Amino acid sequence: LNENPTYKVADIYSGIGGAGGINSASDSTILPLVFRNHFSWKSKFYIQNTLGTAQDIEVKVFKVGTSTPAVTEMYSNVGANSTLTVDFGNDPTYAAFGSGNGASGYAIITGQSGKVAAVADNIRDSSDTKFALQTYYTGFASDAVSTDLIAPLAFHNWFNWQTYITLVNLTGVTTTVTLKYESVNQSGDNPTVTNEVEVAPFEAFPFDMPDPAYGHPATGSGAMIITSDPSPIIAVVNNARGDFAAATPGLDPALATNKIAVPLAFQLGQDGSDWVTAVSVYNLDGGTISSDWVDINSDPATNTTSHSLPGTAGKKTTFHTVGLGFSDGYIGSVNFES
Fold this sequence. Notes:
The chain is mainly β. The protein has strands at 2-4, 9-11, 28-38, 41-49, 55-63, 71-78, 83-86, 104-111, 116-124, 133-138, 140-141, 148-158, 161-168, 175-187, 192-199, 204-208, 219-229, 234-240, 245-249, 259-267, 278-283, 289-295, 304-309, 315-320, 330-337. Strands 3, 4, 5, 6, 7, 8, 9, 10 and 11 form a nine-stranded antiparallel β-sheet that branches. Strands 12, 13, 14, 15, 16, 17, 18 and 19 form an eight-stranded antiparallel β-sheet that branches. It has a four-stranded antiparallel β-sheet with strand order 20-25-22-23, with no helix packed on it.
């Protein structure tokens, strides 16, 4: 959990491992969503040299819709296990990327001698704290690309939430990406909508669900199934409301598991200004999803509440603390199994 004391905003990001997978240290790490004053959004990169010796680190930044880097910058002799801060949103080194609306894209960060890890800090700069937002996400390992991805949480006008997906093609071949939206609890027609887009080599393509050209339901909450042919891709899913936002990776279904742990869940109130937890579980095969909610700092033998919900193959199932009847002030952890 990191907080910005000026704007009173915060976000959480996951730790970065070294054993493979999307959130792993890698010789090259991808930040698929970066900004320079794009609708007041700015990015900082926190880049760690994971080696026990110093190394040079290269940063390349690409604008949306382009296939060549706007800026390439080398940072020399970054210390062992130390973190380099790149103020991408403000540093004049990156002036050629541009600034203002349209100045968005992705970054490739490469260790010249070995693995690096990176976190993107995206903040919407506003003097009005109601409109100030901050989102963190960990860099994507360059070998975590896939031709099959799932965005388990995708919205179109769902309680003012909207979803924007950035598709990044890191190969030298144009690829056709199919995005199939499976709506749940939809209001309106077309609960399933399919679109195809072409993503050029090394391009970041913005797929914005609110765009009426894509024909999504007037209101909907669901999941997006993403396939790419012939090239594997990376996808980052940005879910945003006027006063909240979160960036998460598209997930490779080959890495799905029948057990998931959620270390922090809470229901701090229900008046619209308090935090509650909703967990969306995407079900590949169907079948019942069970959950055990354990009170914080307690004996699981006597302080566990169990809830099960039916699952449907190819759909998401949502567990919401309010709907499950938890009392205000609840804090705990959850284990899911299917």
